[in-house]
Write a structure and sequence with these properties.
209 residues, mainly alpha, Helix Hairpins, minor pseudopilin epsh fold, three-stranded antiparallel β-sheet, two-stranded antiparallel sheet, 12% strand, globular, binds manganese (III) ion
Amino acid sequence: MVKSFCKKIGAKQLNEFLGLEKGGEFILPPLSYEYNALEPHIDEETLKIHHDKHHAKYVEELNKALKKGDAGKIAFNGSGHVLHSLYWKCLTPGGDKEAAEGLKICIAIDEAFDGFDTFRKRFLEAAKSIQGSGWAALVVEPTTKKLMISQIEKHQNMMVAGASPIMTIDVWEHAYYLKYKNERDKYVEAVFDNLINWQVVDKIYRALI
Ligand code: MN3
C-alpha cells in the first residue's frame, strides 16, 4: 500500500484516481468509505446529503452549463466538482498521522511554512475566517511549484491563477451544520487533526511537481 503511493503518477492516472469524468461527461465519483466511516468527526447524515445531493447537483449543473456555454455556471459548478472530489479523497477514517512522517509533501510543507505547526495554524485560520461559504485549500502554484494556502470564496473566487488544489476542507455550512451548528472552528479542527489522508495528498502533490 505505502509503496504504491511512492510511485510518481501522471496526469492521466490522476484523472482516473480522482474520477472527475468518464466518457466525456463529468461524473460523481463514489466515496471510497462508508457514509458512517468518518464518525464522530463527520456524521453519517451530513456525509450522505453532502455527497449524494450537494456534490451530485454541482456535477449535473456543470454538464448542463458546458452544453449551454454558460461561463459563470461552469466556473462555479466546475470548481465545486473539483474541490468536492478532492475533499472526499483527502479524508480517511482515523487519518494517518503516523504514515505522514517522511512523505515528500510533509517535507515540502515544513520548508514552505517553517514547520508543520505553523502550516496547521495558518490553514485553520484560513478555514475558520472565510466570510460566508468557501474552502481552505493547500495549493501548488504551477510555475514555481510553491505551496500556498488559499482561502476560496464560494467555489471559485480568490484562487491564485492556475494554482492546483491538493488538499481541501469544505467550510460551507452544509459541510458541518447538522452536527456542529455554528461552531465551524470545532469542525475544521476535527477534520484537520483526525481525518486527513496525507498519503493521498502526497500522491496528488507528486503528480503535479
Ligand atoms: Mn460542499
